[in-house]
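Quick one:
INPUT:
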């Protein structure tokens, strides 16, 4: 044990509280996960209540501490499966199970398949009835020779035709035996299932911990820059903090750390509208629940961290090669965004994906003239729930993952 705590030798662990009313107790000590941070931290604050006494001696009576609050954020390198529970908490929802569709699936009516270089056509039945939606990622395990074991992004969908972002090997068909997996996904839920966590920062040099309870995920951001790892930052607000001495620390016993490699921007695929972009210089996405505690009388703690309507904002910055996005901004076109972040491995690659299907550009802000080098433009995005129904999930943002 060292004399002073360093900034590196710290384990951040967390666990969702399984049951009970908010603020009842901390999450149980077993079964926690390690958060793999780059930087960040949680801190306790208290309201400062200053005395308003009018003293004849011209001095001031010492103030008092007010209501406790916990707030902060952790930034990490995005990797497949590392933060599934935190994303789910931000969405106030749960990940769906993967779905397998075959020629025997109800709704496909023993359909045979064929495909062109961009579309897969079923002879009968309905992809939509079988559970497929725009923004999903699918993988054929059998059938469609030349296209099996590939991650395919669904960018268009009718009852019988799937349009994908990738280039397919044409198959004349009819292919009568086939199987396609629809990967697990997370969409926002109208049931608004709230989850709170306990987070622990165990400082190993001094063998002590700060445990933060009643912590809600109030939002997250994703960032990409050239020659970089994709980063995820989770914003957190909580109710209380407990200090644990060396006889009590760590609180979480043997937390489990994921071992997946961080995702690099060079292996990402980004599609805006109908164009696959390879000339971006920056990408950011912000998801915010506009949450906060409530001040009350006769308690040191907020009764809850209250979440509100979600907002999704962000921007896409890239080299300017035409005025297509300017025209889209001018016409207020509804377009879609689909980002696939994959590991550097053989297909089907492990991946983390996001899609937005009801998006308009909020600007097309070009760089100033006269500078050396290429001209760039920044495209802010405006996002709302997609209420088209049918082939579209009723969500502002959808996440898809390859892990089980």
């Amino acid at each position: 044990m060292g004399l002073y705590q360093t900034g590196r030798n710290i384990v951040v662990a967390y666990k969702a509280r399984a049951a009970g009313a908010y603020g009842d107790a901390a999450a149980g000590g077993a079964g926690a996960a390690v958060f793999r941070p780059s930087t960040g931290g949680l801190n306790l604050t208290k309201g400062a209540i200053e005395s308003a006494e009018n003293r004849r001696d011209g001095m001031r009576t010492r103030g008092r501490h007010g209501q406790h609050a916990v707030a902060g954020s952790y930034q990490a390198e995005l990797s497949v499966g590392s933060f599934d529970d935190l994303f789910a908490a931000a969405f106030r929802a749960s990940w769906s199970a993967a779905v397998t569709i075959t020629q025997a699936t109800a709704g496909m009516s023993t359909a045979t398949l064929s495909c062109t270089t961009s579309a897969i056509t079923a002879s009968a039945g309905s992809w939509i009835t079988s559970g497929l939606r725009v923004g999903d990622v699918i993988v054929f395990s059998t059938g469609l020779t030349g296209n099996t074991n590939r991650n395919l992004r669904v960018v268009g969908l009718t009852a019988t035709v799937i349009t994908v972002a990738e280039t397919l090997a044409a198959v004349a068909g009819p292919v009568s035996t086939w199987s396609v997996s629809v990967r697990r996904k997370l969409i926002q839920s109208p049931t608004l299932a709230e989850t709170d966590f306990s987070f622990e920062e165990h400082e190993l040099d001094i063998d002590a911990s700060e445990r933060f309870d009643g912590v809600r995920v109030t939002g997250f951001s994703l960032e990409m820059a050239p020659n970089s790892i994709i980063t995820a930052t989770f914003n957190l607000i909580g109710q209380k903090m407990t200090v644990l001495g060396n006889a009590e620390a760590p609180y979480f016993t043997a937390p489990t750390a994921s071992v997946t490699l961080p995702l690099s921007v060079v292996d990402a695929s980004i599609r805006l509208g109908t164009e696959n972009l390879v000339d971006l210089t920056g990408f950011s996405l912000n998801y915010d629940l506009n949450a906060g505690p409530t001040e009350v009388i006769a308690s040191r703690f907020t009764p809850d961290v209250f979440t509100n309507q979600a907002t999704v904002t962000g921007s896409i910055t890239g080299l300017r090669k035409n005025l297509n996005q300017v025209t889209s901004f001018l016409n207020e076109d509804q377009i879609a965004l689909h980002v696939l972040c994959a590991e550097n491995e053989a297909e089907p690659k492990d991946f983390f994906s996001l899609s937005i299907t009801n998006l308009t550009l909020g600007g097309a802000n070009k760089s100033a003239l006269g500078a050396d080098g290429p001209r760039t433009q920044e495209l802010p995005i405006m996002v709302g729930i997609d209420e088209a129904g049918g082939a579209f999930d009723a969500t502002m943002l959808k996440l898809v993952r390859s892990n089980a």
